[in-house]
Design a protein that fits this description.
Radius of gyration: 18 Å
Largest sheet: 6 strands, parallel
Helix content: 25-40%
Number of strands: 13
CATH class of the largest domain: Alpha Beta
CATH topology of the largest domain: Rossmann fold
Shape: globular
Order of helices and strands: EHEEEEEHEHEEEHEHEEH
Structural class: alpha/beta
CATH superfamily of the largest domain: Dipeptide transport protein
Strand order of the largest sheet: 3-2-1-4-7-8
CATH architecture of the largest domain: 3-Layer(aba) Sandwich
């Protein structure tokens, strides 16, 4: 049984400020690095206990070098850094995997459910849409996994993202670690999150995984709204891309991998 875990940090327990996500502020970052690792380890350990024989983890925050490797199960392998591949936060996923889980994920850009809400780049991107609907990093990459026939079975992150996941697919198990309110965060105890993640993964492992597979629309109209018009202008020169307005560049395709490729080069 082969599983994939994609791990981010802005949806882990207690996190509420950009400094806490950033290696450049070690006094603030260190505890949240440990908690990110602990939440990923909890998911992996629960999956192993339920029968997983292979686990690949993508360290998918910032530098891609956050997880403390010796705190993870020995069975797990870890993708660190960024290859520059269109699959981005699910690099190396393919049809050999049985399921995917997302840990530490967060609300999409523009939401009042996480003070750190963003999509891909908090500094550069105001929003991303697919067929007119705003996209989160979860949805972008859950579709990427589904492109290879890999269903999403579990998500841990902020309460707003968990609500979004249920709107997309109520069959996916979720665990809410924090709730955002304006520029604040309401957090449960980190030990409680660990217990909930283990229980949630156990339940997910016993579920009908095929229900977590997303249907990719036949026609794909993707857009990125940048915070600076110069960025949209530059991205509009990608083959097939076009300006929707001075801040927004669009791209149409019938192949989701081409959307991912455009996304890689556009931002």
């Amino acid at each position: 049984m082969k599983l994939y875990i994609s791990a981010d940090i802005e949806g882990i327990t207690g996190i509420g400020h950009w400094n806490e996500t950033d290696k450049a502020f070690p006094n603030e970052y260190a505890w949240f690095q440990k908690q990110m690792t602990a939440e990923v380890a909890a998911a992996a350990e629960a999956a192993i206990a339920a029968g997983a024989t292979e686990i690949l983890i993508k360290d998918a925050h910032d530098s891609g070098r956050n997880l403390i490797l010796d705190k993870l199960p020995e069975l797990a392998r870890v993708v660190r850094g960024w290859a520059g591949h269109p699959l981005s936060m699910v690099q190396e996923v393919d049809d050999s995997f049985d399921a995917i889980m997302f840990i530490g994920y967060h609300s999409r850009a523009g939401q009042n459910t996480n003070t750190l809400a963003h999509t891909m780049s908090s500094a550069r991107i105001a929003r991303m849409t697919l067929n007119g609907k705003d996209m989160s990093e979860f949805y972008l990459h859950a579709l990427a996994a589904s492109y290879y026939g890999v269903p999403a079975i579990f998500v841990a992150g902020d309460e707003g993202l968990c609500q979004e996941v249920k709107e997309h697919n109520p069959s996916i198990q979720t665990v809410a670690t924090i709730r955002g309110e304006g520029n604040s965060v309401i957090s449960q105890h980190p030990a409680q999150s660990i217990r909930m993640i283990k229980a949630g993964v156990r339940k997910a492992m016993g579920g009908e995984w095929s229900k977590g597979l997303f249907t990719i629309p036949e026609k794909l109209e993707f857009s990125i709204e940048f915070k600076k018009h110069q960025e949209a202008y530059r991205a509009s020169f990608y083959p097939g891309a076009y300006l929707i307005n001075p801040l927004t560049v669009g791209f149409k395709s019938q192949d989701y991998f081409e959307v991912l490729r455009f996304n890689l080069f556009a931002y």
